[in-house]
C-alpha cells in the first residue's frame, strides 16, 4: 500500500540527502514526511542513514569555521560589498541559505560524493589550518548546486529547521526496520557517536549496546482544552502543581549519574548540586521530574535559573545565587527494571520510597517529591488552582491514577491545566522585518508602557497576530516610520497591543527594570488609544506580586 | 522632465501623469496591475493589449491605446511605449523633450516569457526603474527549469490521485504557467477571478489554451487529477474543499527564500516571478546607458546604493506602488482576499 514506492527521489549520495531535505522542508503533511524518510531509510547507504538520524536528532559534526569566515569567503567569490551581503542575510534570515543563493552557478559537477564523505571531511578539517579549510569549503561550493550548497552549509552551521519531529523520524524508522517505535525512540536518544556507530548496531533487535546513560522518551501532556469535569470521576485522577522549570530525568546506572533535559541534552555537568545522588541513589533508578531553581523546598522564579543555564562552567557565585533542586514526580526504572507499564499509582509508591530513603541518609538532598494535591471535587480543585502563582507554579497537572508512562505527546491520560497568562497593554514603538516568509514584512515589534509623559520600552514580542493583522501593521509601519536605524524603524506610538506573558522578574539589563518570560502578542487592542495603555508602575506592581 | 509628486509621476511639460495613485486629468498607464492602474482619472493612455484589461477592471472611461514604438505627441512631449516583458500589454514609457530622454520602466522582467513581449532596452539619459527583487539573493533559475518543476509536481500529484491547485496572480502569472501546465494535462480549471481575465485576453486575440471555470455545478469527478489555477486569496478559503484531495503550489518570486515557502504552509513553492531578478535589473539599467537612475518600489535603498558605488548617479524615490505592490503581493500570499480578487463561486 505504501505510497512511498511512487516517490521518485534519488537517495544516492549527497544529492539524495539534499533532495530529502528539500522534500521534508516543503511537504506539510506528516504522512508525506514519514514516507519520504522511510523511503530514504530503505534505499540509502548505511553510513549516510546513521548521519541522517544523528543530524535530525540534533547531532552534527563540531563546527569547523565561524560565520564570519563563511561570509567573507562568499563575499570574496561574489565580489559583493559587505553591506549588501548583510542586507541579503537579513532578508533571508539564514546564513547557509544566503550563501547558497548568492554563489554563482556551479562549475561542472565532479564525482558524486556521499553525505558521510562530506561529514568525514569536515571532521578531519577541524584540525586543519584556515587556508586548508577555505580551500575545501570554497571548492565544495563550486561543485554543488544551490540545494546541495544549502545543505552543506547547514552541516557546517547547524540548525536544520526543517520540521522533522523525533516522532516522525521514529515512525519512519519503525516502518523501515520493523521494530517498535518506543524501542527505536529509546535507542536513538542518548549518547552515541554517529562517527563510530553502525546503522545495524544502532537498530538491531538484539540488546542495545550497553549505553547506561540513555534516558527514556518523555511522556508529554496536552493542554486541557475542556472543563475538567469532562474528565469524569475525580477519584480516578491525581493532581500536582505544574512547575516552571526544565523537564528532566535523573539516571543512576552502573554507579554513574546522568542528568538529561527534555531536549535530550545531557546536562549532568551543569548541575553539580545533583552529584551527591551518585552515591545515594540505588543503581538502576530513573527519576522523571522538574529541574527547578529553589532554596530548600521553595521554588524560585525560572529566570533565576536562566542566568546559569547558558554557561559552560557554573561559578561558585551562581551556585549560591541560583541553587537548583529537583522536583520528582515519576519513577521510570526501579531496580534496573523498566516499570513504565505499571500504573502511576504503583510507580508513585516506589518513587516515594526512594526519595524517603534519600532523606533518611541525613545529608542535604536536592530532591523533593512533587506533592500530590488532594481534592474531592473539580470545583474544589479549580479553587486550589487559583493559588498556583503564589506557590511559583504555572497551574496544575492532572494524571490518571491508572495511567502507564507513555512515549511522547499522547492525548487522554495526562493533562496540563495552566493558569491564564499575565497581560499588559502596551504601545508599539519599534518595528523590524521578520525572517523567512515574513522577511518582507515588519513583524518583530518592541513595546513600551507609559512612565509619566515618557514611554519606556520593556519587551519585544513576535507571535500572536494573524497574517492579515501582520499585513495591516506592516502597512502602518511603512507609512508611519519616524527614523530608521539599520533594519529597525522607529514608529509613531499609536498601535496598542495586549502582551501576554508567563512570568516576570527583576532585571537590570532592561531599561524598564523587568524581564518577561514568554512574552507574546495576545491581541491587537484596536479599541484602545495610546493614552490608555498600562504604566511602568503597573509593571512594577506585577513584579512585586509575581516576581518573587 | 518627470517630477515625483504626491499624486504620482508627473510630466510638467506634457501635463500628464504616469501610473498616478490619485485621480488626475490625464494618465498614462504602464500596465493593468491594480497598483499601477487606478480608477478615477479623466482619461487614460495605454497599450492596445492593456486596454481590454483596464476596461475589465476599471469599467468604462475615456481610453486611448497605442502600439509599441508608435510615438504620440502630448503638448510637445514625444511619448512612446516599449515592451516591458512583465505581463501582457506591460510597457515602459519613453519621454523625449528638447533633446532629453527619460524612460520609466513600470514593472518589468528581462527573461522573455513568450506572452508579454520581449523586454526592449531603451537608451535614455535618465531611467526610472522598479526594484521589487533588487537584492542579489533574487537570481532566478531559467524559467524552463521552474516549468519542469511545476510539471513534475503535477505528475506526482496525479500519481497520488490529487488535484493540483496552483496559486498565481490572476493577471500575468496565471496565464504564464499555462505553458507548464499544458505540458502535462489539458484538464485545466480556474477560479472565477482568473477565468475572467483569461476570457478577456482570449477575446482580445491572445492565443491561450482553453480552460474551464470552476462553478458549484462542476462535478467533483472531473476535478480528480486536474489542475486548478486560483488567485492567492482563494488558497485558504472554503472554496478549496471541492478539490479534496489536493496539493497546493504557489508561484511567486518570494518563494525563492526557503523560510518564506515553508511558512506559507503550502505543499510546494515555485520561484517564478514576473519581475526582473538582480542580474536582470543590472543588465537592464546598464543597457539604457543612463547616467542618472531613480529607483522605485522594492529594495530601492539597496539597489540605489549599489548603483552609486558602481559610479552611476542613483537615488531612491518613494512611490505608492512601491509600498502598495509589495503589500498587495504579500497580502495575497498571506491569504487575504483583496478587493478585486476572487468572488468565491
Ligand atoms: Zn505589475
Ligand atoms: Zn509595480
From TrEMBL, chain A:
It is an enzyme of class 6 (ligase). GO terms for biological process: cell division; DNA recombination; DNA repair; DNA replication. Residues 317-451 form the ATP-dependent DNA ligase family profile domain. It holds the Pfam family DNA_ligase_A_C. GO terms for molecular function: ATP binding; DNA binding; DNA ligase (ATP) activity; metal ion binding. InterPro entries: ATP-dep_DNA_ligase, ATP_dep_DNA_lig_pp_1105_fam, DNA_ligase_ATP-dep_C, DNA_ligase_ATP-dep_cent, DNA_ligase_ATP-dep_CS, DNA_ligase_ATP-dep_N, DNA_ligase_N_sf, NA-bd_OB-fold. This is DNA ligase (ATP). It comes from Sediminibacterium ginsengisoli.
From TrEMBL, chain B:
This is Putative mRNA 3-end processing factor. GO terms for molecular function: RNA endonuclease activity. InterPro entries: MBL, RibonucZ/Hydroxyglut_hydro, Xnuc_lig_assoc. It comes from Sediminibacterium ginsengisoli. PANTHER family: BLL1145 PROTEIN, CLEAVAGE AND POLYADENYLATION SPECIFICITY FACTOR FAMILY MEMBER.
Amino acid at each position: 500500500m505504501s505510497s512511498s514506492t511512487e516517490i521518485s527521489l534519488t537517495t544516492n549520495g549527497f544529492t539524495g540527502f539534499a533532495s530529502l531535505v528539500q522534500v521534508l522542508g516543503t511537504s506539510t503533511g506528516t504522512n508525506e514526511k514519514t514516507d519520504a524518510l522511510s523511503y530514504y531509510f530503505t534505499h540509502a547507504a548505511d553510513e549516510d542513514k546513521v548521519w541522517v538520524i544523528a543530524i535530525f536528532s540534533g547531532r552534527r559534526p563540531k563546527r569547523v569555521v565561524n560565520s564570519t569566515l563563511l561570509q567573507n569567503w562568499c563575499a570574496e567569490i561574489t565580489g559583493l560589498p559587505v553591506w549588501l551581503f548583510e542586507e541579503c542575510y537579513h532578508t533571508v534570515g539564514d546564513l547557509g541559505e544566503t550563501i547558497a543563493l548568492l554563489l554563482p552557478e556551479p562549475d561542472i559537477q565532479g564525482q558524486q560524493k556521499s553525505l558521510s564523505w562530506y561529514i568525514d571531511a569536515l571532521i578531519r578539517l577541524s584540525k586543519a589550518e584556515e587556508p586548508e579549510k577555505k580551500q575545501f569549503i570554497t571548492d565544495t561550493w563550486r561543485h554543488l548546486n544551490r540545494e546541495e550548497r544549502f545543505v552543506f552549509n547547514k552541516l557546517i552551521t547547524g540548525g536544520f529547521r526543517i520540521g522533522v519531529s523525533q516522532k516522525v523520524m521514529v515512525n519512519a524508522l519503525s516502518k523501515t526496520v520493523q521494530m517498535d517505535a518506543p524501542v527505536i525512540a529509546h535507542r536513538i536518544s542518548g549518547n552515541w557517536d554517529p562517527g563510530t556507530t553502525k546503522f545495524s548496531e544502532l537498530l538491531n533487535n538484539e540488546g542495545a549496546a550497553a549505553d547506561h546513560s540513555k534516558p527514556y522518551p518523555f511522556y508529554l501532556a496536552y493542554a486541557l482544552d475542556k472543563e475538567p469535569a469532562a474528565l469524569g470521576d475525580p477519584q480516578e485522577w491525581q493532581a500536582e502543581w505544574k512547575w516552571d522549570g526544565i523537564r528532566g530525568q535523573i539516571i543512576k546506572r552502573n554507579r554513574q549519574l546522568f542528568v538529561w533535559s527534555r531536549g535530550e541534552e545531557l546536562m549532568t555537568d551543569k548541575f553539580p548540586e545533583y552529584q551527591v545522588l551518585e552515591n545515594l541513589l540505588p543503581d538502576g533508578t530513573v527519576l522523571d521530574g522538574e529541574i527547578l531553581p529553589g532554596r530548600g523546598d521553595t521554588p524560585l522564579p525560572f529566570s533565576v535559573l536562566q542566568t546559569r543555564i547558558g554557561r559552560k562552567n557554573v561559578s561558585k557565585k551562581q551556585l549560591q545565587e541560583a541553587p537548583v533542586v529537583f522536583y520528582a514526580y515519576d519513577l521510570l526504572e526501579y531496580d534496573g527494571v523498566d516499570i513504565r507499564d505499571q500504573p502511576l499509582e504503583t510507580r508513585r509508591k516506589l518513587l516515594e520510597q526512594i526519595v524517603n530513603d534519600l532523606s533518611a541518609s541525613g545529608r542535604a538532598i536536592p530532591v523533593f517529591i512533587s506533592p500530590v494535591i488532594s481534592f474531592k471535587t473539580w470545583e474544589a480543585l479549580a479553587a486550589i488552582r487559583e493559588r498556583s502563582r503564589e506557590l511559583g507554579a504555572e497551574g496544575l497537572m492532572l494524571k490518571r491514577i491508572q495511567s502507564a508512562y507513555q512515549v511522547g505527546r499522547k492525548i487522554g491520560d495526562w493533562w496540563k491545566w495552566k493558569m491564564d497568562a499575565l497581560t499588559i497593554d502596551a504601545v508599539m514603538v519599534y518595528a523590524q522585518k521578520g525572517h523567512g516568509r515574513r522577511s518582507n514584512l515588519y513583524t518583530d515589534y518592541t513595546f513600551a508602557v507609559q512612565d509619566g509623559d515618557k514611554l519606556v520600552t520593556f519587551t519585544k514580542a513576535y507571535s500572536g497576530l494573524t497574517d492579515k493583522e501582520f499585513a495591516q501593521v506592516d502597512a502602518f509601519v511603512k507609512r508611519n516610520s519616524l527614523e530608521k536605524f539599520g533594519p529597525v524603524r522607529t514608529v509613531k506610538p499609536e498601535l496598542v497591543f495586549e502582551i501576554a506573558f508567563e512570568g516576570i522578574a527583576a532585571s537590570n539589563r532592561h531599561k524598564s527594570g523587568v524581564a518577561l518570560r514568554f512574552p507574546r502578542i495576545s491581541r491587537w487592542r484596536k479599541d484602545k488609544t495610546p493614552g490608555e495603555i498600562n504604566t511602568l508602575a503597573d509593571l512594577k506592581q506585577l513584579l512585586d506580586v509575581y516576581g518573587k | 522632465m518627470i517630477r515625483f509628486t504626491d499624486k504620482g509621476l508627473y510630466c510638467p511639460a506634457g501635463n500628464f501623469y504616469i501610473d498616478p495613485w490619485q485621480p488626475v486629468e490625464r494618465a498614462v498607464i504602464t500596465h493593468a496591475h491594480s497598483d499601477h492602474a487606478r480608477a478615477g482619472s479623466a482619461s487614460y493612455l495605454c497599450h492596445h493589449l492593456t486596454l481590454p484589461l483596464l476596461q475589465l477592471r476599471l469599467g468604462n472611461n475615456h481610453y486611448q491605446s497605442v502600439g509599441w514604438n508608435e510615438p504620440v505627441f502630448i503638448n510637445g512631449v514625444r511619448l512612446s511605449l516599449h515592451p516591458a516583458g512583465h505581463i501582457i500589454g506591460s510597457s515602459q514609457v519613453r519621454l523625449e523633450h528638447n533633446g532629453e530622454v527619460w524612460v520609466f520602466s513600470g514593472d518589468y522582467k528581462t527573461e522573455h516569457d513568450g506572452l508579454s513581449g520581449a523586454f526592449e532596452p531603451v537608451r535614455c539619459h535618465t531611467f526610472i526603474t522598479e526594484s521589487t527583487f533588487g537584492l542579489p539573493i533574487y537570481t532566478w533559475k531559467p524559467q524552463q527549469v521552474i516549468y519542469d518543476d511545476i510539471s513534475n509536481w503535477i505528475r506526482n500529484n496525479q500519481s497520488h490521485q490529487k488535484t493540483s491547485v496552483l496559486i498565481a496572480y490572476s493577471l500575468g502569472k496565471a496565464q504564464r504557467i499555462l505553458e507548464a501546465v499544458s505540458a502535462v494535462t489539458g484538464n485545466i480549471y480556474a477560479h472565477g477571478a482568473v477565468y475572467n481575465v483569461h476570457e478577456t485576453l482570449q477575446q482580445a486575440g491572445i492565443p491561450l489554451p482553453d480552460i474551464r471555470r470552476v462553478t458549484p455545478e462542476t462535478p467533483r469527478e472531473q476535478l480528480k487529477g486536474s489542475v486548478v489555477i486560483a488567485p492567492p486569496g482563494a488558497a485558504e478559503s472554503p472554496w478549496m474543499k471541492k478539490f479534496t484531495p489536493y496539493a497546493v503550489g504557489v508561484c511567486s518570486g518570494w518563494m525563492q527564500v526557503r523560510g518564506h515557502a515553508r511558512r506559507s504552509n503550502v505543499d510546494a513553492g515555485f520561484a517564478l516571478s514576473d519581475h526582473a531578478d538582480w542580474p536582470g535589473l543590472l543588465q537592464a539599467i546598464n543597457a539604457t546607458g543612463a547616467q542618472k537612475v531613480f529607483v522605485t518600489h522594492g529594495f530601492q535603498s539597496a539597489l540605489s546604493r549599489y548603483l552609486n558605488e558602481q559610479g552611476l548617479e542613483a537615488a531612491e524615490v518613494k512611490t505608492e506602488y512601491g509600498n502598495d505592490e509589495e503589500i498587495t503581493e504579500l497580502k495575497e500570499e498571506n491569504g487575504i482576499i483583496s478587493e478585486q480578487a476572487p468572488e468565491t463561486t
